[in-house]
Amino acid sequence: MSTPTVQQIKRVWPTLAESIFVPHSEQEYQQLVALLDALIDEVGEDEAHPLASLMEIVGVLIERYEDQHVPELSDA
Fold first, then answer.
1. For the segment 3-18, what is each residue's pLDDT rounded down to a tens digit?
2. 41 Cα distance to chain centroid
3. Residue 21 contacts by C-beta under 8 Å, 6 or more apart in sequence?
4. Quick check: 21 and 28 in contact, CB under 8 A?
5. Segments forming the whole domain that contains residue 28
6. pTM for this entry
7. How many domains does the chain have?
């Protein structure tokens, strides 16, 4: 399996960038949450699914946003 080149990524990125990005607002965060929900519906528990790594990446982007913007709930 060959590694994608920057030129290959450059060709497809404009389309992907509309859906995969680092969220900087609540609206962008909600957009990613909706994408993650759709990916979970599609991928389920199948780690071999072609979209499984995308699901993981979107999850990491959401987690990063939550770590920076969502206050922790106290155990009180």
1. 778 889 899 999 999 9
2. 14
3. 28, 32, 61
4. yes
5. 22-69
6. 0.84
7. 1
